[in-house]
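Lab notebook, bench 4. The sequencing result for the construct came back, and we need a structural model before the next group meeting so we can plan mutations. Quick request posted to the team channel:

Model the 3D structure of this chain.
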Amino acid sequence: MDAKLLTVSLSMNDIIRLFSKIVVQPSGCWEWKGHRFGRGYGRTSLNGKLIIVHRLFYAWAVGPIPTGCSKNTPNIDHLCRNRACCNPVHLELVSLKENVRRGYHLTVNLNGVVKSISEWADEINIPYATIVKRLKSGWTPERTLTEPININKRRTKLVRGHQLI
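Done. Here's the predicted structure in token form:
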């Protein structure tokens, strides 16, 4: 059974509309400023159908992408680690296994200092899960690592005479 392929052809109007929602960053990322969903991935409509923006640009600039939900269906990895990026040069078609493996080694660059999320969590005393949640929500690395945790006073508990947060 042949896999279905996502192929994209764009009219000049499509190109103008799509590129009006992109800001080119100094890193070379084409950052999508239109609608984002889930974990920060861009989404738009093309010919009346919703499509994930980085998949659209990869299929348009590089070539057809196999579609489907099987574990054998290739994924597109953001080499820049920026989920809002749709620059085809920053995207690579890889297996699901490889995409997951690469995701576990995420690093965060703050003012030229690159460390793993675990290293930042230990250094700045913000839980690993909080850092990941903030990044997935589209926070910048600077805001993620410098904004203090919002402590809800009502949720603070007293245990053995010590406050646990």
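Residues 7 and 64 are 5 Å apart (CA to CA).
Will bring this to the meeting.
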